[in-house]
Amino acid sequence: MKNEFIQTQNITKFNDICAELEDPQSLIGPSLAMVTGPAGRGKSEAAKQYAARGTAIYLPPLNIRSAPMLLREITFELCTVRPGRSETCLTIIGDEMAKDRRLIIIDEADLLAMQVLEMLRNLNERYSCPVLLIGEEGMKGKIESRRRLSSRIRRRMGFSPLTQPDIVLFLRKALEIKPAPEVVTALHKHSNGDWRPVLTASITIERAMRASGLTEVSLDLVKEITGTK
User: For the chain, is the Cβ count within 10 Å smaller at the N or the C terminus?
Assistant: First the structure.
């Protein structure tokens, strides 16, 4: 199976938010943004892809982050050093952002303590660091509970459920097949709107097709793989 990244409506909206935060115009007003959605919708992959194509910093999930840990991570991504003192980290971050303002994308930010989120707000205000927070639905309430934090959110986005056209495009690119409508419907039902069930089912579909010499995917095969009737 080909490792294909599909340009969905979610991805387009996500990229637009990132580009807006990176734009110098975002220096006018707040430059924090929040992207939410259930696990499996493709938020992390969208962030990784955006960072890989440009200068944005992507910090993967880590549920034990403290404020000093996060400052050291950001500093390392900016200039490959990990100072022991938070004050040193702040000085370096300020200097680096003054030279080249880069977007900081933090995954699973919903797991961060409120103190860490407040530190990111301070970082944004002090050094104009654009920050994108990614998390599950619970992050909305967490952010909205602090007005001084929620009032600085420039853009909000929720990742919509996976659509049938998304599945068609994925199967055409990744498996190089043109799926029948009933196959797409079955996979969409199995997915519950998330990418991961479709991806894992597609891996098994490809394996079964190779083993049997099939060139098309049948509804019976999909039902067998997904365990549906």
Answer: C
- Distance between CA atoms of 6 and 21, rounded to whole angstroms? 23
pTM of the model: 0.91
- List the one residue out of 43, 50, 60, 46 whose CA is nearest residue 135: 43
- The tens digit of pLDDT for each residue in 52-63 reads 999 999 999 998
- Please give the C-alpha separations between residue 49 and each of 9, 43, 84, 197, in angstroms, as whole numbers: 15, 10, 30, 20
Full set of structural domains in the chain with CATH: 9-158 (3.40.50.300), 164-226 (1.10.8)
- Dig out the tokens for 57 from the structure: 């910093």
Cα separations (Å) of 4 from 35, 38, 182, 211? 23, 22, 23, 22
What backbone torsions phi and psi does residue 10 show, to the nearest 5 degrees?
-60, -45
**Distance, CA of 127 to CA of 226 (rounded, Å):** 50
Q: Cα dihedral angle (158, 122, 116, 45), rounded to 10 degrees?
A: 40
As a whole number of angstroms, the distance between CA 8 and CA 189 comes to 18
Least confident of 29-38, 110-119, 212-221: 212-221
Q: What does the radius of gyration of the chain's CA atoms come to, in whole angstroms?
A: 21
